[in-house]
Amino acid sequence: MTKKTVFLTGATGNMGWAGFSELYKKRDRFRIKILARHSKKNIRLLRPFFSDPDVEIIWGDLLVYEDVLAGVIGSDYVLHVGGMVSPKADYYPEKTLKVNVTAAENIVKAVLAQPDHSRIKVVYIGSVAQCGDRMCPIHWGCAGDPVYPSAFDMYAVSKCKAEKIIVDSGIEHWVSLRQSGILYPGIFKQINPVAFHVPISGVLEWATIEDSGRLLANVCEDWVPEEFWNRFYNISSGEQYRMNNYEFETRLLAPIGISSVEKVFEPRWFATRNFHGMWYSDADILEDYLHFRENLPIDEYFRRMASNLPWYYSLARFVPAGLIKLFMKPMAYEKGLGTQTWIKDDPEKLEAYYGSEEEYRAIGSWEQIRPPYMEKNQAKAEASGEILHLNHGWDTSRSIYSLDAADLEWAAEFRGGHFLGPESEIGKKGALFTWECEHGHRFKASAEYVLLGGGWCLDCDQRNIRKTVTEKNRFISQVLSSRYLE
């Protein structure tokens, strides 16, 4: 049997390394090519594979086309996991935009440069950040819901732009897998100011690092059906990994002996909006295709993560809560990213993350920001009316390839714009059409990107969509409450 060659970017990152490890277990069927920067850390990590016949290491950079091309040549699959992510993305927003967009452009250029590019399958790892702020009562969502970045989230902007580059590139087989928050042992060490950008009453449907690795390996298997490709999916480890952020912080702090988040944080430190995260009404679709979940109970998973912590973390249980709060406080007051600096230094951010100075100052107790009860079981949530399904502006029970010009015009009008054709391309996979947004921008996009992915005009200012979108765009207005449309 001829081995398939898989080119993996971002192999030395958290998700990429998990994917590499799973692929390496299947090296009887796969040959692995990885692109890695030539750093001391990466050399140390990859040294065991320097002479491995099943692993080819390309020392290079995603920003250098020739390096990316070297990885793509001869590959059957391209798993594009690499790029800049939080917390670096939060400190270097413009660099993040450049790296993530240029990397996608180089992937596309390299794939299409192959004489047999139609056989190459490209897997793009997107992000839940692409779907912006989804606070209760619109905390359930699915692929096809509006794509829009939260304000000041350049990482989300970069992922939206990079995704469209892949999807509308002309590559014959692509898929966008939108990653959620990843649970991995190192998460206990990720203490930085961005933790307070996350509303304590927000939600997230997490994915474990192990499930994420299996996902990357399984997507390369022959048994993945043709119908899987050219679509968008949400990654998660399932129902039991649905948490509100209060629950998450509680589980995160418990292994180090902190029994209550309220003892070590001030309620005002946490933003009340403008982040991202939702629970998925389509969570199981990807699992049905790729069978990647371990289905380990979440409390057991957190115990397993905690067992990997260095011994000195256990000493925190002997430290008074007041001292721990003093240790946490500087992060809330770090210049630029610290939420508590915005009251003086950045009123625009204060408005985006708290609503207004008045709303910020009104936060005086945990009772004001604790999340309400939210049903996690999808069937029960459906029955109780807790799941508000957004209108996508087209009949989602139909194939997009069965729609006609009137259907596409209605979808465009629902988004505040128009469908401009060409009608002769309707029904063709990957066909690019001209659309017009509510502000008169004309742009090209596929029906897959607009209807299946929830994308729209990227010429509109992506840095603060809430101030760009008008009520003409009923599609995106659904997820922007009246406080943003006043």
Automatic annotation (TrEMBL):
<dbReference type="GO" id="GO:0008743">
    <property type="term" value="F:L-threonine 3-dehydrogenase activity"/>
</dbReference>
<feature type="domain" description="NAD-dependent epimerase/dehydratase">
    <location>
        <begin position="6"/>
        <end position="169"/>
    </location>
</feature>
<dbReference type="InterPro" id="IPR051225">
    <property type="entry name" value="NAD(P)_epim/dehydratase"/>
</dbReference>
<comment type="similarity">
    <text>Belongs to the NAD(P)-dependent epimerase/dehydratase family.</text>
</comment>
<protein>
    <submittedName>
        <fullName>NAD(P)-dependent oxidoreductase</fullName>
    </submittedName>
</protein>
<dbReference type="InterPro" id="IPR001509">
    <property type="entry name" value="Epimerase_deHydtase"/>
</dbReference>
<dbReference type="Pfam" id="PF01370">
    <property type="entry name" value="Epimerase"/>
</dbReference>
<dbReference type="GO" id="GO:0006567">
    <property type="term" value="P:L-threonine catabolic process"/>
</dbReference>
<dbReference type="InterPro" id="IPR036291">
    <property type="entry name" value="NAD(P)-bd_dom_sf"/>
</dbReference>
